[in-house]
Sequence to fold (81 residues):
Amino acid sequence: MKKLRTCYDDVLKVASKTSGTITIKLIFDKRGRIATMQYASDPIKNKGLRSCIAKVLNETAFPAPATAEKVVVTLVISFMQ
Fold:
């Protein structure tokens, strides 16, 4: 997602050597909205990046699950220069 790259680029402006892979556990409700977002792994540990990622994901339209009441997804994002 281009918007996630923009989040990372903003971090690079103040911390130019930042890189790493972030793993996020997302639980979607029956309408396809994010009900829970938990960081399973985040070596970057940048509050601004986390906030931006949350904003982007919460603004993204996801389809409602076809059969389940809720869906669990593991999202892995690698930020590299």
Observations:
- The mean pLDDT is 94.
